[in-house]
Amino acid sequence: MLTPDQAQDRATDIVRRARAAGADAADAVFAANASSEVSVRLGALEDVGRSEGADLGLRVFVGQRSASVSTSDLSPESLAVLVERAVAMAREAPEDRWAGLAPESRLLHGAAPLLDLADRDEPDPPALRDAAARAEAAARAVDGVTNSEGAGAAWGRSVWALATSHGFADAYEATSHTLSASVIAGAGGAMQRDYGFHATRHRAHLDSPEAIGALAGERAAARVGAGRAPSGAMPVVFDPRVGVSLLSHLSGAISGSAVTRRTSFLLDSLGTAILPAGVNVIDDPHRPHGLRSRPFDGEGLPVSPVSIVSDGMLETWLLDSASARQLGLEPTGHASRGIAGAPGVTTSNLYMEAGHVPVETLIEDIVEGIYVTELIGQGVNPVTGDYSRGAAGFLIERGALGRPVIEFTIAGNLKDMFRGLTPANDLVFRHGVNVPTLRIEGMTVAGG
């Protein structure tokens, strides 16, 4: 696989060719990746996979007209045709007064930050198989587990480069190590499944197969005997693995596209309180070996930690250059770029800071409530904030977790949910988006 310097040279070269072919401006991305994965089920090898690939995407501008093309054929002949086609397409495209490269004055200059995103520890297939087998064995050893959906281990390496015609060119490399197990507990119509999963940039940081497997087994076994939830208005507590979805709804509502199209339930909320006082939401692209860390954004702008919500107040939109121009603002360094198409926006390592109370204290005054561990369906209206999703979890009775419950619905409005939110003190950085356990008052629960 190509090195970051070689990937950067590929992106720079295609931009130079586009300018020579008549483009007024251009940018290009080059992405290469390699991965290996192994899965096992019931102790037997189920699948072994290996993949490698490289893709190049080019965006060209002729005046205010633009076009994007991409290819995985990197031969000189194919690239020559690609450039000519892109410029011809741009000349026929409709004008877009907001389109264009990022402001040259805002580009990242100098060395990009070192984020420790790649290691050299590449496990071979036997090592991956051993890790997956150990994880599954640990899960199946948990009392109550009756079957397995399998376990898998994977490794990947990627290189991503960006070059623009107004002076930016850089690239970076990242690795990933993942391990998962999924098992079934119970029998007949009472069977329940759950999983354990961990992903890291460095193999040395990955949880042990035994810990991941035991987590999967314990989660599945705890759900056996699930019954129906009560109905009514009550507190709902979100386990961190499902609570992260609330930050996804937040980031979607403050994205440049949602704001410019006026399709956000937070449209008039900039500079106002959307969360309780004392609650902070941070986006940190510089977190060392973070799963979504990056040294620059998808347009070549520098990135840095940003307070999205500070003391409950919404501080910023998430803007690429096009949405920033439309709103008369500056881009925020949140542009994302795929191989094809124009930039969008994304967060990096997004998290809600921990609160001040342990989980036990968070729930101790709940006479009747629900602790949610799984969300089902996509019943969220991004324009109004209306929220209704299927769920599973555990009943909270007199301040303690009780019996498992399934097939119920939780409903509310995201504005009210955000304002009625309390974070616990158990934040752990385990995913690209992280939250502590969250309590939300006054949600509507509809049991089966």
Give a concise summary.
It comes from Sphingomonas citri. 23% of the residues lie in helices and 37% in strands.
Helix content: 10-25%
By DSSP (H or I, 4+ residues per run), the number of helices equals 9
Strand order of the largest sheet: 3-2-1-4-5-6
Strand count, sense and barrel status of the largest sheet are: 6 strands, antiparallel
Q: What count of domains describes the coordinates? A: 2
Give the SSE string: HEEEHHEEEHEEHHEEEHEEEHEEEHEEE
Shape: globular
Helical/strand content category: alpha+beta
Q: What is the arithmetic mean of pLDDT?
A: 96
User: Rg, please?
Assistant: 24 Å
Distance between the termini: 53 Å
The number of E-state strands comes to 20
Query: Unreliable stretches, pLDDT < 50, 5 or more residues?
Result: none
What fraction strand? 35-45%
Write the layout of secondary structure elements.
Layout: H1 4-20, E1 25-41, E2 44-62, E3 65-71, H2 76-92, H3 125-140, E4 145-164, E5 169-185, E6 192-200, H4 209-222, E7 227-228, E8 232-238, H5 240-253, H6 256-260, E9 281-283, E10 306-310, E11 313-314, H7 321-327, E12 335-336, E13 344-345, E14 350-352, H8 359-363, E15 368-376, E16 386-397, E17 400-413, H9 414-419, E18 421-423, E19 433-434, E20 438-446
Parallel strand pairs: 7-17, 8-15, 14-19
Antiparallel strand pairs: 1-2, 1-4, 2-3, 4-5, 5-6, 8-20, 9-10, 9-14, 10-11, 12-13, 15-16, 16-17, 17-20, 18-20
